[in-house]
Amino acid sequence: MPVNDELLERFLAVDTTALCDADRTTRVVHSAIRARSAATRICGPAFTVRCREDFLAVLRGVETAEPGAVIVVDGGARETALGGEMFARAALVRKLGGIVVDGGYRDMSYVSTCALPVYSRFVTPRAGTSVQLGELQVPVTCGGVTVNPGDLVLADDEGLVVVAPARIESLLDAALAVKEAEHRVIGLLDSGGTLSDAFNVADHVAALERGEQSVLRAKG
């Protein structure tokens, strides 16, 4: 699913926390895979790569993926660098949306200041080989979640999530409602209110003490 300006703008109005609050089944990539670059915000379709101890498939992905795509690498969570400065620079030239590696990445002196979002599980100077074809555009596992070709990869300072294209419109709507509710609560707190003023805390606790089902929710 291509990411148009309208979809990107809608994601910029929320964040991954709101997406997860809106739907607790949202696929969340393990927090060990974290940003290594100056840029952290990702919003693009996954171009998937599977490889082990060899970066040739990642190179092929960078050279094959369409502009805006996010290279998602199933490297088997192994501490071997499957990319570095050259891949990040090449991805910028090709206008890709980011690189996410369940494995290692290197060349942090460049990557840490890079405008391309780069995420990895490890930082390591040891690179893999370049003699195995690997696999492109197949279902992969990255950070403990399944990522299919074309799934939307969304990331910010909080972390990475993966969403099926068919669900993104309704999820963004729900996430925006979450953010609007949060803003109302923040306004109340900033004006001197308490969490009990903002939420049904007393009623919720009382219901749970009675063994009844209850939901903590904002008042009003």
From TrEMBL:
<dbReference type="InterPro" id="IPR005493">
    <property type="entry name" value="RraA/RraA-like"/>
</dbReference>
<comment type="similarity">
    <text>Belongs to the class II aldolase/RraA-like family.</text>
</comment>
<protein>
    <recommendedName>
        <fullName>Putative 4-hydroxy-4-methyl-2-oxoglutarate aldolase</fullName>
        <ecNumber>4.1.1.112</ecNumber>
        <ecNumber>4.1.3.17</ecNumber>
    </recommendedName>
</protein>
<comment type="subunit">
    <text>Homotrimer.</text>
</comment>
<dbReference type="InterPro" id="IPR036704">
    <property type="entry name" value="RraA/RraA-like_sf"/>
</dbReference>
<comment type="function">
    <text>Catalyzes the aldol cleavage of 4-hydroxy-4-methyl-2-oxoglutarate (HMG) into 2 molecules of pyruvate. Also contains a secondary oxaloacetate (OAA) decarboxylase activity due to the common pyruvate enolate transition state formed following C-C bond cleavage in the retro-aldol and decarboxylation reactions.</text>
</comment>
<dbReference type="Pfam" id="PF03737">
    <property type="entry name" value="RraA-like"/>
</dbReference>
